[in-house]
Amino acid sequence: MKNKKPAIKDERAFHNVALVLMSLLAIYCIIPFLLMLSVSFTSESALAQGYKFWPAEISTAAYEYLWAKRFTIGRCYALTILVTVVGTASNLVLTSLFAYPLSRKDFKQRNLFAFILFFTVLFNGGLTASYIVWTRLFHIKDTVWAYLLPGSLMGALNVLMVRNYYNTNIPYSIIEAARIDGASDARIYTGIMVPLSKPVLTTIGLFAALGYWNNWTNGLYYITNTKLYTIQVYLKRLMDSIAFLKSSDVAAESAALAFKSLPTEGARMAIAIIAILPILLVYPFIQKELVKGMVVGGVKG
Question: 115 exposed, middle or buried (CB, 10 Å; 0-12, 13-18, 19+)?
Answer without folding.
Answer: exposed
